Amino acid sequence: MIKSNFFYSFIVTSLVGCKNHDIRGGVRKFPDGFRFGTATASYQVEGAWNEDGKAVNIWDHLTHTQPCIIKDCSNGDIADDSYHLYKRDVEMMRELGLDFYRFSLSWSRILPTSFPDKINEAGVQYYNNLIDELLKYNIQPIITIYHWDLPQKLQEMGGWTNPHIVDWFGDYARTAFQLFGDRVKYWITINEPYQVCNMGYGDVDLAPMLNIKGVAEYMCAKNLLLAHARAYHIYDEEFRSAQEGVIFITCNAEWYEPATENDTEAANEHNDFQWGQYTHPVFSVTGDFPPAMKKKIAAKSAAQGYPRSRLPEFTSEEIEYIRGSSDYFGLNHYSTFLVYRNESVYGHYESPSFGDDLEALTYEKNEWKIGESEFTKYVPWGFYKLLTKIRRDYNNPPIYVTENGFATYGGLNDEDRVTYYKGYLNAMLDAIDDGSDVRGYTTWSLMDNFEWKQGYTERFGLYEVDYESPNRTRTPRKSAFVYKQIVRTRELDWHYEPDIDVMTIDEGH
């Protein structure tokens, strides 16, 4: 393993213009009121895929009809069995001393017909039990209404490319507010819209794997943003005054850094295309899709013979409906890419496609790898730059980091994950010191889970899950002990070495 202090110093000083994050100094304190949590998602942990009235979702359908499209031919039928083991999950959160737990609802578990004509009481009871167990120990629930597991019935009617999904999602969100809003004060509408649309509709990386490039992902983007805004306005107008909560969207944003001085425009456009297409409509002063994105796709579409841009336009009313529709900036972040644009990009991508519209290529440096997995790289300075750009571009919105994490191939002594978390928390503190309004931080993930097309081959958990054991035994890794220390002390100590013999509940927190 590369020594963390040397490695961190090397990558920061080897790129011009990167902030020198000093990790050799003393202990760093988090701001007063800063909150810590962990996250999971329903399909990835719940299991019980067909129990107690739950209907089929797009991941059930995909993994049952094309099982070996998943790397290890696995599925989420049982997963971590959190549907039955939720009390152990909460016990783990108590061991860590968490302030909150971010989890998602299964649309098809609550509304088996996909619509609110029938509410599945058994599914509702599961979430009631989980929420009440959390609150019993002063752990705040943060609920994600949609985290990728669309009911299969809705997918067969067009899913996120059908404009009626704005109504469907609004009805589902209203049902959730009615059922749980008396106790839940933090709502996330939709998790990672870029991944939903580009990887599921414009490619084959996620369900439903439509792979209709250059068209379907943009139809999805417009409808998804309107659906998010619908849920926001329903909460704002019908529930906020009584329930006194907050509601926001969570976007995944990796950092795209120019590979050379000549690639600044390409990197800026990559940030606009990859995450700006969802954050600019919500958080910018003007709203709407980013201007560079609109211009490039319109020009490409015209050259390709389309009668109008493949990127659907918003009406002026829709722009205003979406703009400002988020109380916080929910941010998922994992790594950084270097971006370049030269003649090799032309003809590199299918036409039409998102990649062909953007016309940029990316790569990661070999020295950014600190563990066995290729899934995530260690580039903390990219996190700092990302937080800084959000502060500058969007008038410093309050940020909740709703996911940040590192993949391994298993094992309890996860030094690489410890290095990753310390480095990224350190970079985040640098951004906070510079004025970024970051209010909370969420590790991905509480425990190992079904990692979508990677199955159970990539492990992100603070707790290791034994999938061979009948009760899905969860065992804390070294990173769990380190995270517990950070949460307990509200301090980041790079040199802290925990006693990892026994994990106990800190009743005093």
From TrEMBL:
EC number of the protein: 3.2.1.21
User: Do you know which Gene3D superfamilies this protein is assigned to?
Assistant: Glycosidases
Task: Please list the residues that make up the active site.
Answer: E403 (nucleophile)
Q: Which domain of life is it from?
A: Eukaryota
Signal peptide residues on this chain, from the entry's feature table: none
Recorded family membership:
Belongs to the glycosyl hydrolase 1 family.
Instruction: Fill in the subunit field for this protein.
Output: Homodimer.
State the name under which the record lists this protein.
beta-glucosidase
The organism of origin for this protein? Parnassius mnemosyne (clouded apollo)
